[in-house]
């Protein structure tokens, strides 16, 4: 897919300095630019690269004035970084602009789907499924019975959505993610074995949620596991049964949240965090990476460590953690001195 400088300037409402017919078909960093690539310059620290880059087109701020000759065509805009981001979004939309139902795929009875949907080959749609307008379902995806998917959603290849799941509008679910698998519920028996507790609830994902690859969200034992509006989940996250995650909370990869825990709005949770079940985490809480959360947290707390401490207390304590061998040696020396008196 090729774009000319004139087309790009039209999208960005920018001014061309150079060849309006210059064509690009790929993106690059400015220091790694090659012929046929589009790049941008926003950080002044990289200004020297614009004179050596081999990129065909470079997006720059309108305030940029070259100090020597250039081989790249410039597109001048108000904010190069924002314009480049806008262009990436546009490119992604064009790239994902698929429609139609590929074969082989299977659509069960009583399925309702909207306009301009895309269903990739080897996908399975269960009974009584409702799919909105402009939904993209990529190959090898499984949609179980009675699932509801809102408008403008994208489910990438290999997503598995179990029965009864409800997905809102404008959601993106990346490859390998599983939504609605059984919660981890087993009752111990007198003979030492475990009996499975039926998991008959569902998962509800509200609007504008994005879920990374290979994340698992378990269905509720009773009721619903709920992911509220605007939540962003990274890759390889485990969300257990009956968890609720509040609006606009973001969680980094390899985090695990145990059953029935409630997480508030606008929280930020780092990677490899472990959160026990049946606790409440307040709004706007910040949890640093690799922390272990064993008790409820109030609004606006910032914690780190395992078990997690107040972030400031953890940093003060860490100074002493590093010096423990020296401190122990000093204590032993003092004890010997006292013993000889």
From TrEMBL:
Pathway: Bacterial outer membrane biogenesis; LPS lipid A biosynthesis
Keywords linked to the UniProt accession: Acyltransferase, Lipid A biosynthesis, Lipid biosynthesis, Lipid metabolism, Repeat, Transferase
Assigned EC number: 2.3.1.191
Matches recorded under InterPro entries: Hexapep (IPR001451), LpxD (IPR007691), Trimer_LpxA-like_sf (IPR011004), UDP_GlcNAc_AcTrfase_non-rep (IPR020573)
Catalytic activity field: a UDP-3-O-[(3R)-3-hydroxyacyl]-alpha-D-glucosamine + a (3R)-hydroxyacyl-[ACP] = a UDP-2-N,3-O-bis[(3R)-3-hydroxyacyl]-alpha-D-glucosamine + holo-[ACP] + H(+)
Domain of life: Bacteria
Catalytic residues identified in the record: 241 (proton acceptor)
GO CC terms, sorted: membrane
Gene Ontology molecular function: N-acyltransferase activity; UDP-3-O-[(3R)-3-hydroxyacyl]-glucosamine N-acyltransferase activity
Keyword Acyltransferase tagged: yes
One Pfam short name: Hexapep
Gene Ontology biological process terms from the UniProt entry: lipid A biosynthetic process
Family, per entry: Belongs to the transferase hexapeptide repeat family. LpxD subfamily.
Function (record text): Catalyzes the N-acylation of UDP-3-O-acylglucosamine using 3-hydroxyacyl-ACP as the acyl donor. Is involved in the biosynthesis of lipid A, a phosphorylated glycolipid that anchors the lipopolysaccharide to the outer membrane of the cell.
Quaternary assembly: Homotrimer.
UniProt protein name: UDP-3-O-acylglucosamine N-acyltransferase
Species, as recorded: Flavobacterium croceum DSM 17960
Taxonomic lineage of the native organism: Bacteria, Pseudomonadati, Bacteroidota, Flavobacteriia, Flavobacteriales
Gene it is expressed from: lpxD
């Amino acid at each position: 897919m090729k774009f000319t400088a004139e087309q790009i300037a039209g999208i960005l409402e920018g001014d061309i300095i150079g060849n309006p017919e210059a064509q690009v078909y790929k993106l690059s960093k400015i220091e790694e630019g090659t012929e046929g690539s589009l790049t941008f310059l926003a950080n002044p620290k990289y200004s020297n690269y614009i004179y050596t880059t081999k990129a065909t087109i470079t997006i720059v701020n309108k305030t940029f004035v070259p100090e020597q000759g250039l081989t790249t065509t410039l597109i001048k805009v108000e904010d190069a970084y924002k314009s480049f981001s806008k262009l990436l979004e546009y490119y992604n939309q064009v790239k994902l602009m698929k429609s139609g139902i590929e074969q082989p795929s299977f659509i069960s009875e009583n399925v309702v789907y909207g306009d301009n949907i895309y269903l990739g080959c080897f996908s399975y749609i269960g009974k009584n499924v409702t799919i909105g307008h402009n939904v993209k379902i990529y190959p090898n995806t499984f949609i179980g019975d009675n699932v509801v998917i809102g408008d403008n959603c994208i489910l990438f290849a290999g997503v598995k959505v179990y029965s009864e799941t409800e997905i809102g509008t404008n959601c993106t679910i990346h490859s390998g993610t599983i939504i609605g698998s059984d919660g981890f519920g087993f009752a111990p028996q007198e003979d030492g074995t475990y009996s499975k507790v039926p998991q008959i609830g569902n998962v509800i994902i509200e609007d504008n949620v994005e879920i990374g690859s290979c994340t698992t969200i378990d269905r509720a034992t009773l009721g619903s596991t709920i992911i509220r509006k605007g939540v962003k989940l990274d890759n390889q996250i485990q969300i257990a049964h009956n968890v609720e995650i509040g609006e606009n909370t973001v969680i980094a990869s390899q985090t695990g949240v145990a059953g029935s825990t409630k997480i508030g709005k606008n929280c930020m949770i780092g990677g490899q965090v472990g959160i026990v079940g049946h606790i409440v985490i307040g709004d706007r809480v910040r949890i640093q990476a690799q922390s272990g959360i064993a008790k409820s947290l109030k609004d606006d707390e910032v914690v780190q460590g395992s078990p997690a401490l107040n972030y400031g207390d953890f940093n003060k304590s860490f100074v002493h953690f590093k010096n423990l061998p020296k401190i122990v040696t000093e204590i032993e020396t003092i004890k010997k001195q006292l013993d000889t008196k």
